[in-house]
Amino acid sequence: MMAVAILAGWLTSWLSPWNAALAATGLTLPFFIWRIRRWHAPVRALLRALAGAVTAYRDGDYSFGIRWAGRGELADLVDAHNRLGDALREQRNALVQRELLLDTMVHNTPVAMILVDPARRVVHANLAARKMLGDGHQLEGHAFEDLVALAPDAMRETLDRGGDGMFTVGDEDNEDIYHLSRRQFRLNGRRHELVMLRLLTAELRRQEVQTWKKVIRVISHELNNSLAPIASLAHSGSELLRRGQLERLPNALATIEERARHLEGFIRDYARFAKLPAPRTQPVRWSRFVSQLRDQVEFVAEGVPDNGHARFDAAQLEQCLLNLLKNAHESGSPPQDVKLSLRRLPDGWRIDVLDRGNGMNEAVLANALLPFYSTKRNGTGLGLALAREIAEAHGGRIALLNREGGGLCVSMVLPDAE
């Protein structure tokens, strides 16, 4: 027993320093943890503020700002965050202003604009559209087809045909001319359609007046250039007859005939341009068509397929290309450099009439396709305009461009007829 008591006393004396250390640690650790938590509390608050600001930015709220009294990397992070918030706020304000401006322009433009969703319901309609289709009432939420059913017959027929077009509403004494355009696009991953109706009456009236003035000037000029010498030579011919100077009479009569035939040709060309009928398209073999052209005017043919076919009005296209080929010869080009090039496109044909003449300056290129515009002394200004009318009547287009090395290229594209 004595030995056990002695061993226990020795162990107690040996462990007493450890007990003191553990007791001291038990008192210091909670205090240390409390100090750490107190020191980290502002940092945790800052991190929570940053997380809340990021959430606000995601929701479109850029009014948040964060303050931090400390220094170092955290201060730099807070400053960068505040600068980002200021930049986003300025961009948002600028975007809001642009949206307000765009909304004001769309609502107050004279062009009627209607946005239709995939379910064929009106998503947005400006003031002009409301006046045209809804008697001033809102159209949003209405079925577009219901609005079309209440529209004037001409508008409804144009909308039913699809694509762009023009139509007239009213009678002869009080009619309005509109242009319809339709555009498809994707909004938020869904296909929408934008329908635009533009009133063209006033603009077309102004253009019509200007065109008539130009027509009158051109016709007056041509008539005076022909009738004045005819009247003068007729008087001279009667004087020659009275005096018995018959040897000079044939020259006077020849000049009268030449001026009369020129006037006849001008009137014929004008009538052809003014009364161009709708094309009667039918399958035409290119090799045969080009061969018939070469019987009437000289040119070099390129790219003509042996068995290629296309659908077009042969008489109209022949008249069109004859005008273009004759213009090429009159440009001063050597005859061997007048060419007709034919090329197949994915959805149609391209016809190029090429020459090595003097080409055209920018002013002439910009106006050459307009009716009655001509740089020739005796030109009527109807040849290129008629070619343009024929191309567009076939659903195609025509363009002029100068060639490298001199000369002109008149390019016509004819789409495949359905």
UniProtKB/TrEMBL annotation:
<keyword id="KW-0067">ATP-binding</keyword>
<feature type="domain" description="HAMP">
    <location>
        <begin position="47"/>
        <end position="93"/>
    </location>
</feature>
<keyword id="KW-0472">Membrane</keyword>
<keyword id="KW-0902">Two-component regulatory system</keyword>
<dbReference type="InterPro" id="IPR050351">
    <property type="entry name" value="BphY/WalK/GraS-like"/>
</dbReference>
<dbReference type="Pfam" id="PF13188">
    <property type="entry name" value="PAS_8"/>
</dbReference>
<dbReference type="GO" id="GO:0007234">
    <property type="term" value="P:osmosensory signaling via phosphorelay pathway"/>
</dbReference>
<protein>
    <recommendedName>
        <fullName>histidine kinase</fullName>
        <ecNumber>2.7.13.3</ecNumber>
    </recommendedName>
</protein>
<dbReference type="GO" id="GO:0000156">
    <property type="term" value="F:phosphorelay response regulator activity"/>
</dbReference>
<dbReference type="Pfam" id="PF02518">
    <property type="entry name" value="HATPase_c"/>
</dbReference>
<dbReference type="GO" id="GO:0000155">
    <property type="term" value="F:phosphorelay sensor kinase activity"/>
</dbReference>
<keyword id="KW-0597">Phosphoprotein</keyword>
<dbReference type="GO" id="GO:0030295">
    <property type="term" value="F:protein kinase activator activity"/>
</dbReference>
<dbReference type="InterPro" id="IPR036890">
    <property type="entry name" value="HATPase_C_sf"/>
</dbReference>
<dbReference type="GO" id="GO:0005524">
    <property type="term" value="F:ATP binding"/>
</dbReference>
<dbReference type="InterPro" id="IPR004358">
    <property type="entry name" value="Sig_transdc_His_kin-like_C"/>
</dbReference>
<keyword id="KW-0812">Transmembrane</keyword>
<keyword id="KW-1133">Transmembrane helix</keyword>
<dbReference type="InterPro" id="IPR000014">
    <property type="entry name" value="PAS"/>
</dbReference>
<dbReference type="InterPro" id="IPR003594">
    <property type="entry name" value="HATPase_dom"/>
</dbReference>
<dbReference type="InterPro" id="IPR005467">
    <property type="entry name" value="His_kinase_dom"/>
</dbReference>
<keyword id="KW-0418">Kinase</keyword>
<dbReference type="InterPro" id="IPR003660">
    <property type="entry name" value="HAMP_dom"/>
</dbReference>
<dbReference type="InterPro" id="IPR036097">
    <property type="entry name" value="HisK_dim/P_sf"/>
</dbReference>
<keyword id="KW-0808">Transferase</keyword>
<dbReference type="GO" id="GO:0016020">
    <property type="term" value="C:membrane"/>
</dbReference>
<dbReference type="InterPro" id="IPR003661">
    <property type="entry name" value="HisK_dim/P_dom"/>
</dbReference>
<keyword id="KW-0547">Nucleotide-binding</keyword>
<dbReference type="InterPro" id="IPR035965">
    <property type="entry name" value="PAS-like_dom_sf"/>
</dbReference>
<feature type="domain" description="Histidine kinase">
    <location>
        <begin position="218"/>
        <end position="418"/>
    </location>
</feature>
